[in-house]
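TASK: fixed-backbone design
INPUT:
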């Protein structure tokens, strides 16, 4: 197996991954007095960075011109509002993966009160730095992705995963 050309953090096999705390910032508040929909995505994007660091495809991966990760599709649910200063806990569960893609879901909780505030389901693709086209995960990343996926395999599938948007007809 080819090793990453830079140091990697210790792999956290917690299921789900629970390494991303955050706080609702004043700039994230809209005229309704709660976090604006766009900033949920910002918070989730930072949690995606935390996940990518787990398998060695964080900032160094792009900085060293090895590869990049692109989000192909995203789905957000807004379950309960959060307000300025609220502490957040964002967990991540890998749902599936293949040679080039990673399907996962983030769950955002109010860190003190424990309620589910939002979810973000994503399809992430590995990208070759030079061609900017899809490419297989490097060996060092795939080995870690497979370990994470195995650790998450026993978790129940969240009801928010795989949902379609639409108005149900009666």
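OUTPUT:
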């Amino acid at each position: 197996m080819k090793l990453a050309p830079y140091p990697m953090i210790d792999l956290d096999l917690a299921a789900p991954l629970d390494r991303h705390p955050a706080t609702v910032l004043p700039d994230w508040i809209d005229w309704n007095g709660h976090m604006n929909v766009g900033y949920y995505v910002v918070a989730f994007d930072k949690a995606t960075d935390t996940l990518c660091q787990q398998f060695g495809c964080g900032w160094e991966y792009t900085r060293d011109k090895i590869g990049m990760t692109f989000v192909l599709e995203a789905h957000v649910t807004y379950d309960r509002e959060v307000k300025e200063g609220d502490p957040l806990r964002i967990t991540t569960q890998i749902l599936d993966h293949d040679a080039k893609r990673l399907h996962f879901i983030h769950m955002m909780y109010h860190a003190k009160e424990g309620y589910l505030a939002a979810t973000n389901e994503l399809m992430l693709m590995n990208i070759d730095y030079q061609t900017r086209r899809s490419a297989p995960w490097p060996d060092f990343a795939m080995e870690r992705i497979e370990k994470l996926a195995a650790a998450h395999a026993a978790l129940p599938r969240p009801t928010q995963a795989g949902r379609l948007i639409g108005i149900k007809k009666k």
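COMMENT: The mean pLDDT is 96.
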